[in-house]
Structures are given as C-alpha cells and as structure tokens.
Amino acid sequence: MVGKLALTIGLLLAGAQAQQATNCTYQSLKCGSVLLAPPFNYTTLQLTTAVNDTSSIPLVSTTDLSQTLFHCTDILGTITGNAYCFAGCDTKPGVRNDQCIL
Ligand SMILES: *[C@@H]1O[C@H](CO)[C@@H](O)[C@H](O)[C@H]1NC(C)=O
Ligand SMILES: *[C@@H]1O[C@H](CO)[C@@H](O)[C@H](O)[C@H]1NC(C)=O
Ligand SMILES: *[C@@H]1O[C@H](CO)[C@@H](O)[C@H](O)[C@H]1NC(C)=O
User: Fold this and answer.
1) Which of 34, 54, 67, 89 is deepest in the core (most CB within 10 A)?
2) For residues 21 and 40, is the Cβ–Cβ distance under 8 A?
3) What is the domain range of residue 64?
4) Where is the signal peptide (predicted)?
C-alpha cells in the first residue's frame, strides 16, 4: 500500500512538472533567469535537475542558476544545462540565442 501511494505521488509530481507554462523554443539557448521568469515559468527544481544531469557544469546554487545557459533539446520544453556563465548570462530578445558574457 505504502509503495503504491509513493508511486502515485511520484506520478502526480511528474504530471505537475509536465504542465509547462510555455515550452522553451526547440534548439534555442536561454539563460536560467529567462527560463525562471514568465512566460516560461520553469522551476528552480527543473533547472537544478538539468544542471545535475550535465557533468560539465559544477553544481551551482539557486542564485547561480540564473546565470547558467540552458539548451532546449526538443519541442516539449526539455532543457539540458549548457554552460555556467562565470561573468554572467547575456539575454537576447525573443527567440535569439542568449550567450555567456565573455
Ligand atoms: C507565470 O508566472 C507569473 C508570475 O509568477 C504568473 O503571473 C503567470 O500566471 C504564470 N503563468 C502561467 C502560465 O502559469
Ligand atoms: C542535485 O545534486 C545534488 C548533489 O548530488 C543533490 O543534493 C540534489 O538533490 C540534486 N538535485 C536535483 C533536483 O536533482
Ligand atoms: C509543451 O511540453 C509539454 C510536455 O512537457 C507538452 O505536453 C505540450 O504539448 C507542449 N506544448 C506545446 C505548445 O508544444
């Protein structure tokens, strides 16, 4: 019973995460700060998970997520960590790719 309840809660959480307000644009590069804000409304948990899955990026704090560059890998809003921008992340308007400040 307990196991089944845990599974149900897990599925509910997965379902809640799938309800992405606005999916990021396929193949675009966006700063964490942009993805956390409307209209995307990604959660810090989503960004942290993406960073955790990327071995090339050292674990960053929640505030550092804003200046991490993410890559949108499909049309369903899936993101992967691309790079941690040490000098900050430069946001570009619209669908133009964001980039790290060099
Ligand atoms: C996104 O977040 C903003 C600010 O928290 C909120 O006003 C807006 O309704 C959210 N959008 C969606 C589609 O959930
Ligand atoms: C990310 O990795 C850290 C360290 O391994 C872990 O403490 C944290 O819970 C992970 N977060 C997510 C969202 O996977
Ligand atoms: C956004 O992604 C979700 C899955 O995360 C998918 O169900 C939905 O259809 C996508 N929305 C658009 C407009 O492509």
Assistant:
1) 89
2) yes
3) 22-100
4) 1-18
52-100 per-position pLDDT tens digit: 998 888 888 888 999 999 999 999 999 999 999 999 999 999 889 999 9
Tell me whether residue 63 is in a domain. Answer: yes
**Beta strands of 1-102 (E only): which ranges?**
29-31, 68-72, 79-84, 89-90, 99-100
pTM: predicted TM-score of the whole model, two decimal places: 0.80
Q: Is residue 90 part of a domain?
A: yes
Query: For residue 27, is it within any domain?
Result: yes
For a ligand 1 pocket test, name from 41, 43, 44, 46 the mutation site with the most ligand atoms within 8 angstroms of its C-beta: 41
What tokens were used for 56?
């090339």
Joined tokens for residue 33? 């700060």
The number of residues in the chain equals 102
Ligand 1 atom nearest 38 alpha carbon: 1
The number of the ligand nearest the C-alpha atom of 37 reads 1
Closest-CA residue, ligand 1 atom 2, reads: 38
Task: Count structural domains, the chain.
Answer: 1
